[in-house]
Amino acid sequence: MPYLLETSCLISLIRGNRATTARFLSLVADGGLYTSVVAHAELLHGARRFSSIERRAQEARAIAELVERLAGVLPIWGELADVYAQITADLATRGLPIPSNDAWIAATAMAHDLVLVSEDSHFARVPGLLVENWSAE
Questions:
Q1: Strand 131-132 relative to strand 3-5: parallel, antiparallel, unpaired?
Q2: Whole-model pTM above 0.70?
Q3: In 19-77, at which residue ranges do the beta strands (DSSP E only) sit?
Q4: Strand 115-117 relative to strand 72-74, pairing
Q5: 75-96 pLDDT, tens per residue?
Q6: What is the CATH number of the domain that holds 77?
Q7: Beta strands across the sheet bearing 115-117
Q8: How many other CB atoms sit within 10 Å of the CB of residue 64?
Q9: Which residues in the chain come in under a pLDDT of 70?
Q10: For position 136, what pLDDT does the model report?
């Protein structure tokens, strides 16, 4: 089963969370692990916020090494905009919005028929989105 790793999952991997890392290592050789360009950008943003140049470089290396092990970083494209619009309109109508970046990540998972891996519980609000939390295993 292919997976889309969301920002919180990627951070857990970089920080060495045992459960998340064990699950990642059991699946990475199969080639079915992806991330979104949005999650990748969020990681890079976080790395650039460190005041220490050394720490920024260390985080950037850790991110690059992790992303290299994935099957790919999935982009935003035209068809994905429609999935995003469906998700955000539905959640707004129900009074259950989620952050915009997370809606893009959810749309990416749905458009590619991927299971989203996240530690953020608000993804459960998105109808039809399959979500796993590897850190809780």
A1: unpaired
A2: yes
A3: 33-36, 72-74
A4: unpaired
A5: 999 999 999 999 999 999 999 9
A6: 3.40.50.1010
A7: 72-74, 33-36, 3-5, 115-117, 131-132
A8: 12
A9: none
A10: 84
Q: For residue 46, give both structure tokens.
A: 């976080």
Q: Amino acid identity of 116? A: L
In the chain, the number of structural domains is 1
Could you tell me the two tokens for 19?
């459960």
Distances in Å between the Cα of 26 and the Cα atoms of 54, 71, 81, 94, 122 are 31, 14, 33, 38, 26
CB 50 within 8 A of CB 30: no
Domain limits at 117? 3-136
CB atoms near residue 53 (< 10 Å):
8
Tokens of 79: 């068809």
Q: Are 39 and 109 in contact (CB under 8 A)?
A: no
